[in-house]
Amino acid sequence: xxxxxxxxxxxxxxxxxxxxxxxxxxxxxxxxxxxxxxxxxxxxxxxxxxxxxxxxxxxxxxxxxxxxxxxxxxxxxxxxxxxxxxxxxxxxxxxxxxxxxxxxxxxxxxxxxxxxxxxxxxxxxxxxxxxxxxxxxxxxxxxxxxxxxxxxxxxxxxxxxxxxxxxxxxxxxxxxxxxxxxxxxxxxxxxxxxxxxxxxxxxxxxxxxxxxxxxxxxxxxxxxxxxxxxxxxxxxxxxxxxxxxxxxxxxxxxxxxxxxxx
Length: 262
Description:
Elements: E1 12-18, E2 29-34, H1 38-58, H2 83-95, E3 99-103, E4 111-123, E5 128-137, H3 140-156, H4 179-192, H5 206-213, E6 227-228, E7 236-237, H6 239-260
Antiparallel strand pairs: 1-2, 1-4, 3-4, 4-5, 6-7
């Protein structure tokens, strides 16, 4: 959004570096721009101050500590993109969807489909831009639609190379007649003396891939240790819960074997 406001300034982008992995929401981004005058620098400082204030107001619950800092540096005279290329890049980034595309109509509060602008790297000397996005969905049909939207945008810019790879296979949870799930709930109740809490999550997890590659497998569940701030640089696990998850896995395996051995 900030870059889109610079579109009419005739600025030259020197570099953009942001994000670290395709499956992580980017935490920070660095942008270098070449300005033509001190007057532009003053205007930019005012714009950034205004933008930071508006962003903090809009996202005060989810990102209260958002911060934008500036510094002055001397870029290489040969490193910056041309004004035309800079404007084109700004237009692409402004149009590229990012975040929730659709909420589930079956499960309240569950994100059905999303897209993530995960990584961007530029090489102005080579006039190249590398952008990595990631789409996720609980629906195969909706996932294909999301991929098509992003691919179409890049193709409309006459991008040199657009590739699709490594998508998470959708997994639509099945609660009805799921014997494995019932056995897992029984094992959990016996081990922890409380009912298991069943959750639907918007994430790329293994059952989707397992079920897709093994059509004969009809039932799947997913559980594990307590993980916090997942897919961020602050991701961490509660160590004691790893042992609990392992013991639960053993208990479920034993119950499954006993059930199907009858």
